């Protein structure tokens, strides 16, 4: 249900963006003097303003409706974690070190007092 509402919401958002970009701005009347005003007769004598304005208004109303519906779905989600502080920790304890050594060795040789891990400096 949430996925379908989200898809409809995105389609409405793209539709609103498209309709807003198609509409003429307030300065479009100056362009009619140079020949661009003839294309407005496709939508009737009043031009495309009333049709596009109504279509944009309807799409925006549906967009707001899907926004409220998605908010309702998110707020009334059952189960799961409701807050970040309620989430279980993601850090797990490290496993205990293994006593199995490669090469069939069963025990580490005991270090003597004279042996060190650092190589001796050349004299």
TrEMBL record:
Work out whether the entry's keyword set contains Protein transport.
yes
Q: Which GO terms describe its molecular function?
A: protein-transporting ATPase activity
A GO cellular component annotated for this chain's UniProt record is: plasma membrane
Membrane topology reported for the UniProt record: Multi-pass membrane protein
Where found in the cell? Cell membrane
The residues that cross the membrane are 56-75
For the region Disordered, give the residue spans.
91-123
Q: Mostly located where?
A: membrane
Its domain of life reads Bacteria
| Annotated GO biological process | intracellular protein transmembrane transport; protein secretion; protein transport by the Sec complex
Protein keywords: Cell membrane, Membrane, Protein transport, Translocation, Transmembrane, Transmembrane helix, Transport
| Keyword Lyase tagged | no
Q: Family assignment?
A: Belongs to the SecG family.
Q: What does this protein do?
A: Involved in protein export. Participates in an early event of protein translocation.
* Official protein name in the record: Protein-export membrane protein SecG
**Organism source for this protein?**
Granulosicoccus antarcticus IMCC3135
The encoding gene is secG
């Amino acid at each position: 249900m949430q996925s379908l509402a989200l898809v409809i919401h995105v389609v409405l958002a793209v539709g609103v963006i498209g309709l807003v970009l198609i509409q003429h701005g307030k300065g479009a009347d100056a362009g009619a003097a140079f020949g661009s005003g003839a294309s407005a007769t496709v939508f009737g004598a009043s031009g495309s303003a009333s049709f596009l304005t109504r279509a944009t208004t309807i799409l925006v109303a549906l967009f707001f409706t899907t926004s409220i519906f998605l908010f309702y779905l998110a707020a009334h989600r059952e189960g799961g974690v409701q807050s970040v502080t309620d989430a279980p920790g993601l850090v797990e304890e490290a496993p205990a070190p293994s006593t199995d050594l490669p090469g069939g060795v069963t025990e580490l040789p005991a270090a003597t007092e004279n042996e060190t891990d650092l190589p001796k400096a050349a004299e």
